[in-house]
From TrEMBL:
GO molecular function: fluoride channel activity; metal ion binding
UniProt topology in membrane: Multi-pass membrane protein
Means of activity regulation: Na(+) is not transported, but it plays an essential structural role and its presence is essential for fluoride channel function.
One GO CC annotation: plasma membrane
Protein encoded by which gene: crcB
Catalytic activity: fluoride(in) = fluoride(out)
Key words, A-Z: Cell membrane, Ion channel, Ion transport, Membrane, Metal-binding, Sodium, Transmembrane, Transmembrane helix, Transport
Family the entry assigns: Belongs to the fluoride channel Fluc/FEX (TC 1.A.43) family.
Source organism superkingdom: Bacteria
Protein name: Fluoride-specific ion channel FluC
Length: 131
């Protein structure tokens, strides 16, 4: 039961951040869902970094990792909006934009996840060197 509380404590601000960014980021040119693309990219970078740092540090309890990793980042990012936006673009005759969106989402997400892991490893090395 306590895990559910930690999950909810992370999910609420994650959802609010995503909602706020969808309002703040203007729609992309040519129908590209720019806000969802940027949100998912940011989530990939952060989650890669967070999971590279958190298990190894021993300073972040498992429940806090659940709250931040699954709760916050899980509600901040959105695979379902990505897929629905892709289908809507295809149904609207925007096959080129849909393909671009899918490729940018997938390739960018993988690259940013890898960059996050790399940054996390550098963070850990810098922390060991300083301490």
């Amino acid at each position: 039961m306590r895990n559910l509380l930690y999950l909810a404590l992370g999910a609420f601000p994650g959802a609010l951040c995503r909602y706020g960014l969808t309002l703040a980021v203007p729609a992309g040119t040519g129908g590209l869902p720019l806000s969802i693309l940027l949100i998912n990219w940011a989530g990939c970078l952060f989650l890669g970094w967070f999971f590279a740092v958190s298990p190894k540090s021993g300073r972040i309890p498992a429940r806090v990792r659940l709250m931040i990793g699954t709760g916050f980042t899980g509600t901040f990012t959105t695979f379902s909006a990505f897929t629905v936006d892709s289908v809507k673009l295809l149904e609207g005759g925007e096959a080129g934009t849909a393909l671009l969106y899918m490729l940018l989402s997938l390739a960018g997400g993988i690259a940013l996840s890898a960059a996050g892991v790399w940054l996390g490893k550098r963070t850990m090395r810098a922390g060991r060197a300083a301490g």
